[in-house]
């Protein structure tokens, strides 16, 4: 619904609901908010109060409680009006005030921000979430209404909001099992992120619409007739299901399926009363239609990690069109549609299932725990973004318990998922009876047996951090090292840091070291230098991630004094033997301009600076072009012809851009290739492109075109890499 929301709609909804609400409290929250926001307008031009009303309505549909609805009405007053939290507390009580405060704090957390702030922001976000899960549910409803009205916002804002929604909020909704919210968030975000693909799929669906509807109606009728004379405690509900545009997109474009290959674009859902009836219905359906092999999934006996349960099967219709059937009980249906919110929706009913609520909260707790054991903020952002990947595998223990894990999980992940102590003591594993290495990637249906060692003092190995896929395992491994081996960690960490310093020829006087590292100590919550060494030692601080910044800082702190900031980091000041032949002048320092970063092979020109030697530009450099255009004789006299020598054994800087499908470990793989080729990275960064791809940018030191070509070839072979180029300036 996009239009006008009114308090009357809310009242109507409450009066027709079987749930008990404190209507007068909700109305007074409305009146209070309405007065506070008086005169304020939304970007759409509508009165501001429409927004809290809409958010409240969405939450009412989810079946949330009175305090949540009141907090939704008031969710923007503390942030956007003079009303204080104290006033909210006085009028509406501690609970409502706490929820409003949580949402307000969450709003102040910019998710994608400069790296330095991100640690703090993510901590705040997790903290707000941990206080009360209703905070994040209100936030999801708030985001949903903002997405519904995003067309009124300026273009740049639309993309940023859509990007955030796709990467953070939709995955959270998915993890909390809130299918309806998740799909709408995804579809609406997708609409802004890739309008072209969106309208293309919309169009495909539209032209087949009547055909599809007729097909579904026929199937529904056939199944209903067949079910009629059978034993069901209550007539099963049979409904046609529309697949979301974004989920079709994912199958078509990410899994390279044609629209004909997407079986579940035609889908029918059957809802029955008991688990037994689910299997009965399945039998009947398989008797009516031929099942397609390998397409049957029993999520009733092995629920997905977000607690989803149903039977899925794909069968062939009489017309030869395959379609998907989902079979579930009403209870499972509530969980599938409302997820964690089902806890409130059915609180008073017989369906209350505290276990499910507990299991979902366990995930939130896991995020919080991770933020305590990991000093690496990217890790936490990664859990929220990627640990939520819907593709899960289900592996069995020898006793028949099923364990669900993210795709690509290894023996280590499995062991830690069973029990922390089993993880620590893992010595080996058997999969389907055969011994496998610890980095073996598990698949659905395999039976995995962990072999443990009882040897005294046996614990995890540092290399497991690279093997583990789940954050849960990684944080358990890290906390073991953190606890068990502080002394050893300090020694290893110190040695590793010193090795990096030597590698990049950074020499920092001992008494200045702490001051030099102070920012990093703070960033990683370390009190002392020893804490910092220990963090490096157990893997909480990754040197590969901080070294670029340290190098920058080193250049700024120590090299400016020597007045040669433009020199490549690893080389001492270079003179005429830099691979350049200069006319006449033969003893003069040469530096390479940062505006165009010439590489051997480029056509170049030199500029005589005042007191800093000659700076070399490419002839295509915009600065050179501008100088020619200015046509000042005095300035032109300072430009001179230069050439490369034949012997190009010299090191120069350039920036490369790698575009790839975004995935976990991409940056790591790229860096690994650079390291292997012994190519120093001066600094690097990565960002997400609006089409969902990722762009990794690195300023590197390179010996010449040959080495660069070789590097490009290797990088193009990295999984998911789309293109590798030199950056255009
Ligand atoms: Mn809002």
Walkthrough of the structure:
The structure is a single chain. With 729 residues, this protein is α+β, with helices and mostly antiparallel strands. The strands form five sheets. Strands 1, 2, 3, 4, 5 and 6 form a six-stranded mixed beta sheet that branches. The chain has a five-stranded mixed beta sheet with strand order 12-16-14-15-13, with no helix packed on it. A hairpin with a 4-residue loop joins strand 18 and strand 19. The chain is globular and about 95 Å long. Mean pLDDT is 79; it is low at 348-353, 386-390, 561-577 and 583-587. Bound molecules: manganese (II) ion. Residues 51, 75-76, 142 line the site of manganese (II) ion.
**Ligands present:** manganese (II) ion
| Poorly predicted runs | 348-353, 386-390, 561-577, 583-587
Distance between the ends = 46 Å
Counting DSSP E segments of at least 2 residues, the number of strands comes to: 20
Give the overall shape: globular
Mean pLDDT: 79
Count the helices. How many? 30
Radius of gyration: 30 Å
Beta-strand content bin: 5-15%
Biggest sheet features:
6 strands, mixed
Q: Summarize the amount of helix as a percent range.
A: 40-55%
- Structure class: alpha+beta
């Amino acid at each position: 619904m996009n239009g006008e929301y009114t308090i009357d709609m809310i009242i109507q909804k409450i009066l027709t609901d079987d749930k008990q609400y404190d209507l007068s409290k909700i109305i007074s929250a409305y009146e209070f908010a309405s007065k506070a926001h008086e005169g304020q307008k939304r970007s759409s031009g509508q009165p501001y109060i429409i927004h809290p009303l809409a958010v409240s309505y969405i939450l009412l549909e989810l079946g949330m409680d009175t305090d949540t609805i009141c907090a939704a009405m008031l969710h923007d007053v503390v942030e956007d009006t003079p009303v204080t939290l104290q006033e909210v507390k006085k009028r509406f009580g501690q609970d409502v005030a706490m929820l409003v405060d949580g949402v307000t704090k969450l709003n102040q957390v910019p998710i994608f921000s400069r790296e330095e702030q991100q640690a703090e922001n993510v901590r705040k976000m997790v903290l707000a979430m941990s206080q009360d899960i209703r905070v994040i549910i209100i936030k999801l409803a708030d985001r949903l209404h903002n997405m519904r009205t995003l067309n009124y916002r300026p273009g740049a804002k639309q993309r940023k909001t859509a990007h955030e929604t796709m990467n953070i909020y939709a995955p959270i909704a998915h993890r909390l099992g809130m299918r309806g919210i998740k799909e709408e968030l995804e579809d609406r975000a997708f609409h802004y992120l890739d309008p072209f693909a969106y309208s293309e799929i919309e169009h495909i669906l539209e032209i087949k619409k009547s055909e599809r509807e007729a097909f579904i109606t026929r199937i529904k009728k056939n199944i209903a007739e067949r079910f009629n004379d059978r034993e069901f405690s209550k007539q099963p509900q049979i409904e046609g299901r529309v697949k979301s545009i974004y989920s079709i997109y994912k199958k078509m474009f990410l899994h390279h399926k044609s629209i004909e290959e997407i079986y579940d674009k035609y889908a029918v859902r059957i809802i029955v009363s008991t688990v037994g009836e689910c299997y009965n219905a399945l039998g009947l359906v398989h008797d009516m239609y031929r099942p397609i092999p390998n397409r049957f999934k029993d999520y009733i006996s092995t629920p997905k990690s977000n607690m989803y349960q149903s039977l899925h099967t794909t069968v062939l219709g009489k017309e030869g069109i395959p379609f998907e059937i989902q079979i579930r009980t009403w209870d499972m249906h509530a969980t599938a549609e409302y997820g964690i919110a089902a806890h409130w929706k059915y609180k008073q009913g017989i369906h209350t299932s505290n276990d499910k609520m507990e299991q979902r909260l366990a995930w939130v707790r896991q995020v919080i725990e991770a933020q305590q054991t990991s000093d690496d903020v990217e890790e936490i952002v990664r859990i929220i973004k990627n640990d939520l990947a819907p593709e899960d595998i289900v592996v069995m223990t020898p006793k028949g318990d099923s364990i669900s894990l993210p795709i690509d999980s290894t023996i280590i992940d499995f062991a830690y998922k069973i029990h922390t102590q089993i993880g620590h003591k893992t010595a080996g594993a058997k999969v389907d009876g055969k011994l496998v290495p610890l980095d073996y990637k598990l698949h659905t249906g395999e039976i995995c047996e962990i072999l443990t060692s009882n040897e005294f003092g046996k614990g995890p190995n540092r290399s497991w951090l690279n093997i583990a896929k789940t954050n849960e395992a990684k944080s358990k491994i890290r906390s073991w090292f953190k606890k068990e081996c502080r002394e050893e960690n300090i020694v290893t960490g110190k040695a590793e840091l010193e090795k990096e310093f030597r590698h990049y020829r950074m020499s920092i006087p001992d008494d200045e070291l702490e001051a030099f590292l102070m920012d990093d100590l703070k960033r990683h919550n370390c009190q002392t230098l020893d804490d910092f060494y220990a963090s490096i030692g157990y893997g909480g601080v990754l040197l590969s991630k901080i070294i670029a910044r340290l190098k920058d800082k080193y250049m700024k702190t120590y090299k400016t004094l020597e007045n040669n900031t433009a020199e490549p980091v690893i080389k001492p000041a270079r003179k005429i033997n830099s691979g350049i032949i200069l006319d006449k002048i033969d003893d003069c320092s040469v530096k390479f301009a940062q505006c165009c970063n010439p590489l051997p092979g480029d056509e170049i020109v030199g500029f005589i600076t005042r007191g800093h030697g000659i700076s070399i530009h490419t002839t295509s450099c915009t600065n050179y072009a501008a100088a020619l255009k200015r046509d000042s004789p005095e300035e032109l006299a300072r430009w001179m012809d230069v050439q490369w020598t034949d012997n190009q054994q010299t090191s120069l800087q350039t920036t490369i851009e790698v575009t790839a499908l975004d995935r976990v470990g991409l940056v790591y793989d790229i860096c690994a290739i650079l390291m292997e080729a012994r190519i120093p990275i001066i600094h690097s960064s990565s960002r997400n492109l609006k089409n969902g791809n990722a762009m990794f940018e690195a300023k590197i030191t390179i010996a010449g075109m040959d080495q660069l070509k070789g590097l490009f070839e290797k990088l193009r072979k990295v999984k998911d890499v789309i293109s590798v180029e030199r950056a255009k300036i």
